[in-house]
Amino acid sequence: MNIRIIRHAVLAVAVVLTVQASGQDVLAAQAPMDRQMAKIDSVVLDRLLKIEDYEYPAQDLYPEWSNEYAHKYTNVVIPDSLLIDLTGFCMPTENTKITDIFGYRPRRRRMHYGLDVKVQRGDTIRAAFDGKVRYVSYQRRGYGNYVVIRHPNGLETLYAHLTKKMVDENEVVKAGDPIGLGGNTGRSTGTHLHFETRLLGKALNPALFFDFPNQDVTGDTYLYTKPKKKVYDPSDPDTYYKVRSGDSLGRIAARKGTTVKNLCKLNGITTKTILRPGQVLRLY
Ligand SMILES: [Zn+2]
User: Fold this and answer.
1) In the chain, what are the domain boundaries?
2) Which of 84, 103, 114, 252 has its Cβ near the most Cβ atoms within 10 Å?
3) How far is the CA of 188 from the centre of ligand 1 (A)?
4) Domain 81-225 is of which CATH architecture?
5) pLDDT tens, 187-216?
6) Which residues are CB-neighbours of 189 under 8 A, at least 6 positions away?
7) Contact call for residues 70 and 135 (beta carbons, < 8 A)
């Protein structure tokens, strides 16, 4: 069902009725009719938009609905800013203990794209908002059993290391619906929930939205603003890296959250180039 066509049809009916009513006493008849039509129009539209929200959550934001990938980064334009509605939430778990935060893990030299919350094996994990299950899969060396849900507010949430999945792809869920049981599947040490919040595939810190220790959201809304693109600036140490002895391109890329390919491109070098301690590499 295409909402745009329906919207046009509803407006067309309104126009026809308005024209009919305007035959005799234009000013007298038209005003109440307009008001009435506007009311019907908005009630119908509200209902249709709600249905659409369930069928294709955040349709205006996402170019497609696909069950083929967990996250996609191509063909996606992240808006400069987006007001994300957090009302109607449900905490995915009632557990409050954060065991690992979002961000770069120097020890493992890799990004941690989610928040880890301690759960016991078999604890119920719940959908954070109303939405539609987009992806359900198993990754032996990664997420284990995991579920991705897309929500009308634009976010996608991911729940990993589940011992059991309780939803199927394309299933519509309400906030608070059980979607799986907590566990330790995949690359995980100790039972926990690995929870991600993504906007158009881009991982955002779940702590921006969810306050697990207090079992609450951070506000009724969260205003996402796209970070300004960083550019290389010799006066800004965040934008370059000084090579230390023992460094390799792979190690630097991992530590700085970039790729070897990017480093080579930006610095006009190849993977065979020998790095000298003290050498400055552009990161942006
Ligand atoms: Zn994790």
Assistant:
1) 3-55, 81-225, 237-282
2) 114
3) 8
4) Distorted Sandwich (2.70)
5) 988 999 999 999 999 999 999 999 999 999
6) none
7) yes
